[in-house]
Amino acid sequence: MNFDPAEIEKIVREVIQQTRSQVVTASPTPLSSVRPEIRSTSQPSAIPIRARAAVLVEKKRLELKEFPLRKIRENEILVRVEGCGICGTDIHCFNNDPFKLCPVVLGHEGTGEVIEVGSAIHMDSVGKPVRPGDKIVTSVLETSEACMVAKYNPAKANLCDDLRIYGLLPDESDNHFNGYFGEYLIIRPGSSFFVVNDMSLDLRMLIEPAAVAAHALERAKKTGLINFRSRVIVQGCGPIGLMMIAIIRTAGVNNIIAIDGNTDRLAIARQMGADYTINFRDYPDRQGLVEAVNAVTKGMGAHFAFQVTGVPAAASTIWKLVRRGGGICELGFFVDGGECSINPHEDICKKEIMLVGSWAYNSWEYPNAYHFLQRAARIGIPVEKLITHRFPLDQIAEAFQTNLRLEGIKIVVENPNFRSVSS
Ligand SMILES: [Zn+2]
């Protein structure tokens, strides 16, 4: 007997649909009173009435709380979270709550599986059909109507003063599932979201930092200084710096010089595609570092450098490592780390330096990041090795502490209750 795969998929979807409608619509009474907390494991598509999320209740205090999971509206999507990376921004929120968001469910480097799709939604942001069982990632939400930058220069929507991202949204009285450090996420109207069924969980958790790197590369390309023969420095080998190395290698840059003070990170920099690694701690002063860079740049300094630390001293030094006619992309200071000194004569004027800043990304850069990650996998750059630690949601506090101790590279938090609708 021959089965048409499309037919089998249709039958499976119908069964899933029937099971779900039995579960969800069988209780017309208020959500909180009837449905059991977790449905039997034989019904992975079942939607619980309550679910957990990690709330940053105040600075330095994360609490795992259980909330009612409300029904989605016609223009929303319910996602069961699989996992989410911890970002430097999350740590900044944890320490200082700079955006005054507490209480907040953090987590923007996340991904999960579509459990329920509102009746008004049929496609993702690039026109792919979206259905229960699809693996999904989200980018920024539509920017504020009031923002003149976003309105008159949509290509610069990343500079909107009200750039909104899941995991950095204010809490709402009827929906606490606004960030990926929870078991569920409700995708709201106006969001950019992408069906990425052909990506591994690890790569899906890395697509957000990959988009940051993709945007920085686009900015750097504006200088005309990034090409096959460019000698390019990446200063700072944290998650974004390492991602930067992987993307410029994938984009064809052949001479990449990684600079950091941590030998483990420099070893990973090599795996991401760095040709030379320089530990600045090996040099007693700045001049020593300049000479180390000159030794691998024909005595002239780099054509281009990405500054990916948040350290003012490093931001001062980088100007000395770039040759005359070179360029710099500053993307390390995503928070205000203070000021740094430069010599306008020596560093900028005399060298005719091309400087670009890079801030976050636009939603359309997600497809770009997707293609980068797929290409990197094909040419053997093990980007997923950036994930060094995994914690279940129950241990999110320990995950944050590990990050605060500067251990590992990318630390991810995974939902221990995740079950695929197709399992
Ligand atoms: Zn981030």
Descriptive account of the structure:
The protein is α/β, with parallel strands linked by helices and 423 residues long. It folds into two domains: 5-198 and 384-414, Medium-chain alcohol dehydrogenases, catalytic domain (Quinone Oxidoreductase, Chain A, domain 1, Alpha-Beta Complex); 210-357, Rossmann fold, CATH 3.40.50. The protein is built from twelve helices and 15 strands. The strands form three sheets. Strands 3, 4, 5, 6, 7, 14 and 15 form a seven-stranded mixed beta sheet that branches. Helix 5 packs across helix 6 and helix 5 (201-221) packs across helix 11 (365-378). It is elongated.
| CATH level-1 class of the largest domain | Alpha Beta
Task: Determine the number of helices (DSSP H or I, runs of at least 4 residues).
Answer: 12
CATH superfamily of the largest domain: Medium-chain alcohol dehydrogenases, catalytic domain
- Measured between the Cα atoms of the first and last residue, the distance is 24 Å
Percent in strands: 15-25%
Helicity level: 25-40%
Q: Which shape, going by the Cα principal axes? A: elongated
Mean pLDDT comes to: 89
What is the string of SSEs from the N terminus onward?
HHEEEHEEHEEHEHEHEHEHEHEHEHE
CATH architecture descriptor name of the largest domain: Alpha-Beta Complex
Number of strands: 15
Number of domains: 2
The set of bound ligands, ions and cofactors reads: zinc ion
Low-confidence stretches: 15-42
Query: Pairing-aware structural class of the strands and helices?
Result: alpha/beta
- What is the oligomeric state here? single chain
Briefly note the CATH topology name of the largest domain: Quinone Oxidoreductase, Chain A, domain 1
